[in-house]
């Protein structure tokens, strides 16, 4: 068993809004959130006051403790206010991908039994359609303004009393993001107030933030990585978060220059752009002190090229998953020069790890031996919503979460992730379940059988790659028709990017797809 070198941290027995904004009064007029496109700024005092008023407005509208509220928005400076207002009103927040189709959104609404939606006017049509399909939604609110819908802005003027609720941080669900886990369709990950808040305390010794630091939030808040690293963690410590709604390289670089960003938390495609794109040289990025990459594997050579070009310490990595609130490993900011190339970091405080044999899962492996990574700690999720079997398949009776990732640990305690047992595809950090795409492909009348794996494109991104068996009467069914069939029905990040036609899908006697054989063909 491997244990963290850091001292244990006590569980944080606070609701997440208090765990993050409990010191907002001390930070007062310091900028908390800045819109990276137009410069609109909210101070800590405003974020604290605004989220309390919106919580009162939501409670007055009927939001009650135990309700589920779907937060459907790109990154904006209103997103944190909406999130903390909803939790203060007693709701669990299920975060929704802003590019989800109405059908995908409706599945999440139905599965989570969400009664309320908070969205933005450009996404209102999708939210309305999703609510119609799912049923059970009582009201759709908007962060900005839209005719016929109550606005969070209007709630700032409410005279309703602020809700005063009793929370059980160990049991009450704060966030309900959706994850495919190691395989299968997306499932609601029940993360309690204690789990999310404690994970922030666990991460702090390795990645310490302070007033005066400026973090650029371009990765989405709806993703647990963005929610933790770019929203909760910096706002808990008085740092300033500069918010961008999406990644556009020129806008991103200009924001670093104009707002004197000190730290970046990114995914590998952004590291690639920083390392290779000619536009980088046109901007002053000298304020940067460090870059941390997570959400997907980062090639060691690419990391070296990026740090050399920017004149920074080596790019650090972090490791975790939604089911782990999400962090378990990170390269400490003060150890960037010491960490071996390619490591995803060392165990954060209060976290234990086992590496177990793939052939004999009951056998623990030692230093240098590769096996499946198991994690135990206070950040392990409460479980999957309404799926006890999936929960027990993920977390064993001794509390160990089976990540599905294969890794090994060196003598210095540094973890290296080398492969995945799980079949999940990670496209630019977003999770894509092969089973979901396979089921969709089989709805095409010209497809007899299909399998989907992840394969790497020329940019080093893992993309969905479909292997398709045509029906005998499919005629001249081609790649473009299949790509379009999928693209019309899923969010952009889930689209199939490659198609290979085969005579039959290789399967085991049990019927399980032999994906390793398909990978050998790529």
TrEMBL record:
The keyword Ligase applies. Residues 436-512 form the AMP-binding enzyme C-terminal domain. Residues 23-385 form the AMP-dependent synthetase/ligase domain. One of its GO terms (molecular function) is ATP binding. SUPFAM superfamilies: Acetyl-CoA synthetase-like (SSF56801). Keywords: ATP-binding, Ligase, Nucleotide-binding. Gene3D superfamilies: 3.30.300.30, N-terminal domain of ligase-like. The keyword ATP-binding applies. It comes from the Bacteria. This is AMP-dependent synthetase.
